Amino acid sequence: PEAFTARLEEMEGQIESFTQALAERDGRITTQQQVIDGQRGEITDLQATRLRERFSRQVESLSHVGAENEQLVEQLMWLHSADGTDEREHFAYWTELLSTVEQAMAQSVAFQEVGQPGHQQGGSAYNRFSALVQEEASRRNLVVSEGDANYAQILTEMAEAHPDLYREHMGQTMQAGR
User: Fold this and answer.
1) 3-state DSSP call for residue 120?
2) pTM over 0.85
3) Angstrom distance (rounded) from CA 176 to CA 130
């Protein structure tokens, strides 16, 4: 029995030593995992900052959209997070889309100065009012077209907010047969 007790005590010591070694190893693993998680967070933050800077430069390059349009940058960032696609694919898509919008705006009569080719003096109130309606729709993240309920609601609100421009707009609409 003494040999058995001695052997049992030796085994208990080995188990205790083994348990302590496991606890130390688990502590090191936990610490390493915390470091890795922190580094992942830093990488994610750096990637988001880099993407925000890219979108900001992209928006600033759109002279007709407006430089330093932080709201558009925020929307692009939100769309990127909701999109779930590769960053390069997402950025390429929005670069192409915003470039198309910029080109359309640059060619629009509403963005041409009086006296510039393509500017129609008679269409200016119509274009300014229509631009107000579209800007408000865009601010509300709506895509509207004449005849739909959202367009009618925004048109009514803009008419109340800008009655003189609306009257001029309607006069030009009637003259042009729109």
Assistant:
1) coil
2) no
3) 14
